Amino acid sequence: MGYDYALVHVKFTIPLAAALSVAARPLISRLDVARVVFISLVAVTATIPWDSYLIRTGVWTYPQDAVLGHTIYHIPVEELFFFFIQTYITALLYILCNKPMLHAQYLTTPSTRPSWISRRKLLGTVLLSSLTLMGGYFVAQNSDATYMGLILAWACPFALITWTLTGDMILAMPWTSTLAPIMIPTMYLWYVDELSLRSGTWSIEQGTKLGMTLFGSLELEEAVFFLVTNTLIVFGLAAFDKAVAVCDVFPELFPEPSDKLPLGALLRARVTPSSAYDMHRIAGLSEAVTRLQKKSRSFYLASSVFPGRLRIELTLLYSYCRLADDLVDNAASPAEALQWVSKLREYLNLRYNGSDAAVVRDFIRSNFEPSAWSALDLLPTHILSSEPLYSLLAGFETDMEFKATKSWPIDDESDLELYASRVASTIGELCLDLVFHHTPPDASRDVLYAAAKEMGVALQFVNIARDIAVDAQISRVYLPTTWLNEEGLSPEAVLLKPYGEPVERMRRRLLGKAFHMYRKSRRCMEWLPAEARGPMTVAVESYMEIGRVLSEGKSRSEGKATVPAWRRLGVVWRTLRSG
């Protein structure tokens, strides 16, 4: 009896698992727990017979004075714990690396898949098949390559199955979501294993190993073992996530979203052929994600903690709002901008008066550029109230007054609040429409909608305070003219010099009002449904952090104030942790 193997866990695996648990705890959802449980059960169940065989046949041994002496199927309990803790560590790292990812955008069909993905998937299939056969050959030879053969013959068939089912999505995903969660724990465990082999905590018997080392005392077989097992874990989680993505992105096929853990639906999603995928929807979602990434880093980061289907619907809503805003702002003339507003209003009329889908589609194709089609096609108007969408167009018309009439439409605070309510409170209302579609609130809807409207005004005030110089470049001044007069300024003066102490005083004044409204409505967010409370709070706090940066005097006259990435991540972590 000894404690050497147990001390490996005490010194190396448990501290890392604990650190990852603390880091991931605020971000973990019920679905993430299901991911970890699923992959842990699969990993431990698949590894026990294989490892038991290694020990019983003398390929792998543990000195009696290095282990506690308790075994299950001849496997020391410390080794069984290693199966679990390795899976747990890699799974948590995978979840953290994949939080920003919306996996549905990486779904493909054979006809839409880039040729390089098809080629590499075929290459991977050939490689894994060859390694499986090679492993079987090594085992049959009963030579120095026996242990390597047992590793390959056991692991590669599992890898081949998951690769066949999910390889296309794995290849389409960024390396930070796939390769990173494989290699980071692999290299760490290589280090731990090298120390253990050097100290004699465990060993590979002579005659069953190649006698080659990767570095130090790390046997080549052990290096391959940790690489392939972590690959299996990540491939298995990716297969799980593909089922989740299919379930969430196609509500007409799967009415219940994945965060409700509908096991039957997830199994059906797993076996749904790619020929059933609506690739127009997938392509539109990918375009929407790209818009979100480019135009709003704060909301993109916040969106990553929403449940899958709600996240998709919010992304599609944002894509429409961003498209509409860009059509108006990028118009060559006020007349063209008015035409876009008129077309958008007619689009809403068609969507909300029950027009046939073909009629709506023809209108979109006839009046908008192809780059706008998906955002208009996929707006979930069957869930969204119509009034906020029409009010948003009224806000755009206020924007146009700066050029069309060469006037200053924001005369006083009431004009400012009306404008903010049209372009921002409306978004808050629409977000709640989506949230309540999935989960009814415990509190009064009227109270929550009122709080959302007020919070929307607060966020827009922050936006205006941030963009004084940027807006001046396009001949817009959203600071009330009455405020400017109090400072002895005019809108024209701000256009010429959108910085200086008078402007900073008005910026602070606007931020003061923003934070006052924020504090009034913030407490109501505690009454939101649990599934949306944390993510919605993250979205608000991520944007209000811009206001805090401005309040610290870190605005920039030449452009927008920015929040460093580490600070944005800190906001997300603290907000979810406190919630």
From TrEMBL:
Catalytic activity from the UniProt record: all-trans-lycopene = gamma-carotene; gamma-carotene = all-trans-beta-carotene; 2 (2E,6E,10E)-geranylgeranyl diphosphate = 15-cis-phytoene + 2 diphosphate
Principal place of residence: membrane
Annotated Pfam families: Lycopene_cyc, SQS_PSY
Pathway field: Carotenoid biosynthesis; phytoene biosynthesis; all-trans-phytoene from geranylgeranyl diphosphate: step 1/1; Carotenoid biosynthesis; beta-carotene biosynthesis
EC number from the UniProt entry: 2.5.1.32, 5.5.1.19
NCBIfam families assigned to the protein according to its UniProt record, in alphabetical order: CarR_dom_SF
Similarity remark: In the N-terminal section; belongs to the lycopene beta-cyclase family. In the C-terminal section; belongs to the phytoene/squalene synthase family.
Name of the protein in its database record: Bifunctional lycopene cyclase/phytoene synthase
Organism: Stachybotrys elegans
